[in-house]
Design goal:
Number of helices: 8
Helix content: 55-70%
Distance between the termini: 82 Å
Radius of gyration: 24 Å
Shape: elongated
Largest sheet: 4 strands, mixed
Number of strands: 4
Order of helices and strands: EEHHEEHHHHHH
Strand content: 5-15%
Length: about 290
């Protein structure tokens, strides 16, 4: 039956509010999946921090970045597993006639906004991993990271938007921003990496291609789950869980084990390893007057 409420009009009447025809929320399978991924991300983080302490601080850049990625992912999955970081979208899915009155039909669906908070932090860190491996310039890294943040933020707007046209408009903007990320990695990153030694160039192409394939699947999942609602919430959780495991822990172990075995693995001195020295560790250029 439709939900009815009393009218505030001066004559007796009944105003239809609408009828909720479905509540699309996570079931036991989805909740258990969130807990499993939380544990995987947590254990991966511990492993990455342990790996970092086995190498000199000058060689820990990739270890620390990668550990941060899975740490933030673990926090996000813990929040979603305990039912935090979730909003409810109420969407009009149709109308029906009842007692001669047209009544809107609503569907409630969970939106996991904590997932987007996670991605807004972890995907820039992941891009830093790949950019530093390739040797991209600071300008190109900045463009890639800003485009990535735009992609995630507009994706969140799309997920929270109820009206169909604006929702897909935000989705289109997110996809355009993603193409900028693809260009920076597939064109600029590949070009720079191939100018380094053969092993590094080959490794970058392999791991960057792996990452871009995974990242391309994310918007497809969004389109058939959050976007068109053709997949239930449990299916959405499982799909993102598989992608997040591949894109973070699997990516991280592959990156660190392979990079540690490269003959020219980066060794970073200066501020990263020693902090700001008495002489001033953050000078941009030399003072010609010696002042």
């Amino acid at each position: 039956m439709a939900t009815l409420k009393e009218s505030t009009l001066p004559f007796p009447s009944i105003v239809p509010v609408g009828k909720v025809v479905s509540n699309q929320v996570a079931g036991d399978v989805g909740t258990r999946t969130l807990w499993v991924v939380f544990v995987i991300q947590l254990l991966s983080s511990i492993a990455f921090y342990a790996m970092a302490f086995r190498v000199p601080v000058q060689k820990r850049m990739f270890h620390i970045l990668t550990a941060f990625i899975t740490t933030f992912a673990a926090i996000s999955y813990y929040g979603m597993a305990i039912k935090d970081g979730i909003a409810i979208n109420t969407i009009t899915v149709g109308h029906e006639i009842e007692a001669g009155i047209e009544i809107p039909l609503y569907a409630n669906r969970e939106v996991y906004w904590a997932r987007y908070v996670d991605w807004s932090v972890t995907t820039p860190l992941l891009l830093l991993d790949l950019s530093l491996l390739a040797g991209l310039s600071g300008a190109n890294i900045l463009v890639a990271v800003v485009a990535d943040v735009i992609m995630i933020v507009t994706g969140l707007f799309a997920a929270l938007t109820v009206k169909e046209a604006p929702k897909w408009g935000w989705y289109a903007i997110a996809c355009l921003a993603y193409l900028v990320v693809v260009y920076q990695l597939a064109i600029n990153g590949r070009g720079v990496a191939l100018n380094k030694d053969k092993k590094t160039g080959t490794f970058f192409i392999a791991i960057a291609s792996f990452t871009l394939v995974l990242w391309t699947i994310y918007p497809i999942v969004w389109g058939i789950a959050d976007g068109s609602r053709n997949v239930d919430v449990d299916g959405e959780i499982i799909a993102y869980a598989v992608l997040d495991i591949l894109a973070k822990p699997v990516f991280g172990f592959w990156l660190l084990f392979t990079h540690d075995n490269l003959s020219n693995s980066a060794s970073i001195e200066g501020f990263w390893a020693h902090g700001i020295s008495k002489e001033g560790g953050l000078r941009v250029g030399e003072d010609e007057d010696g002042a």
